[in-house]
Write a structure and sequence with these properties.
There is one protein chain. By secondary structure, the chain is of the alpha/beta class. It has a single domain, classed as TIM Barrel (Alpha-Beta Barrel). It contains nine helices and nine strands. It has a nine-stranded parallel beta sheet. Strand 2, helix 3 and strand 3 form a beta-alpha-beta unit. Helix 5 crosses helix 6, helix 6 runs parallel beside helix 7 and helix 7 packs parallel to helix 8. The radius of gyration is 19 Å and the shape is globular. The relative contact order is 0.13. Bound molecules: magnesium ion. Magnesium ion binds next to loops. The site of magnesium ion has 4 residues, from loops.
């Protein structure tokens, strides 16, 4: 058995142990973690490219593999020129592209038609590449606070957004991928702050190619991590970002604040099988803190 096979069977073994233990586990809100005998979700950890310790791509992937990290999240900028490079780098590894993080020009709610056109063109090129790479989707924000002039925050704009997302979602679906709406905290994007709001916009876009995500850092806006993930549910939740909860550093670097158990319990209950991806800085040595963080998340997933 080589190292990859060992890692794979170890993870499968851990999942069996977790599943075996779960029917008796009663959660804080009184429900069993394994509702109706449904398969539990799986903790698939992913690193963004810029987050992973190491200089060159191969070095980053070697390190990720040594930790059993199975997802890789590159940025979308110029992705169409990197498809072969990324395919080659992942060949023979137990790592897949998780999601693509933005990287488009312009923005979808731009008032200026040329800015909107820049978005449409670059976003579709990124979606093409994401589909080729087997990504779960391409992450996007409708408008950051700093992006002006922006269409006003009213009903007409919401209807426009859903209509535009419908087209984009259908395009993504035809390319074997999705568009993933990311809610951000109010300091960055007032337009869409809650996972439930992103999920509702995805629903009203009426395309299986439009999904949403939750980012534990931005989820400081939520009243409940558990409720937030369940508000999207398995139909809409396509990706998760994670960081420490005090300074947006590596999970664990903010000590007691870095508790993800409540959110993980929702992911387990809904049978979430996509990725939890590191989008964070680091205070300490990257290799050291990322190694500890992966263990912390596995421990908390077990507790959830
Ligand atoms: Mg994020």
């Amino acid at each position: 058995m080589d190292r990859r096979e060992f890692l794979h069977s170890s993870l499968a073994g851990a999942a069996v142990v977790a599943a075996g233990a779960s029917p008796l586990a009663v959660t804080a809100c009184g429900s069993t973690a394994d509702k109706g005998g449904k398969a539990l979700g799986k903790l698939n950890i992913s690193f963004q490219e810029s987050v992973a310790a190491g200089k060159e791509l191969a070095e980053k992937l070697d390190f990720m593999e040594s930790l059993g990290v199975t997802g890789f999240e590159p940025g979308g900028k110029g992705l169409w020129d990197r498809v072969q490079e990324i395919k080659d780098a992942l060949k023979g590894r137990n790592i897949k592209v998780s999601a693509i993080c933005a990287g488009f020009d312009g923005f979808i709610l731009a008032e200026d038609p040329s800015v909107k056109e820049a978005f449409d063109t670059s976003m579709r090129r990124i979606i093409d590449a994401a589909g080729e790479l087997g990504s779960t989707g391409v992450i996007m924000v409708p408008a950051f606070n700093r992006q002006v002039p922006c269409k006003p925050h009213n009903q007409e704009t919401r209807d426009y957004l859903c209509a535009q997302l419908h087209e984009l979602g259908e395009y993504a679906k035809a390319h074997g991928t999705t568009v993933i709406l990311e809610p951000l905290n109010r300091k960055e994007a007032f337009y869409m702050r809650l996972v439930a709001d992103a999920a509702a916009i995805a629903r009203d876009s009426d395309s299986a190619g439009v999904k949403c995500m939750g980012d534990f850092w931005h989820m400081q806006e939520e009243t409940s991590d558990y409720g937030a993930f369940w508000s999207a549910g398995v139909d809409y939740l396509q990706h998760v970002h994670i960081a420490s909860r005090g300074r947006r550093k590596t999970p664990g670097e903010d000590g007691e604040k870095d508790n993800y158990v409540d959110g993980f319990r929702a992911l387990k209950e809904m049978g979430y099988d996509k990725y939890v991806s590191f989008e964070c800085g680091a205070v300490g040595d990257k290799k050291t803190v990322q190694t500890a963080a992966v263990q912390l998340l596995r421990d908390q997933w077990e507790q959830a």
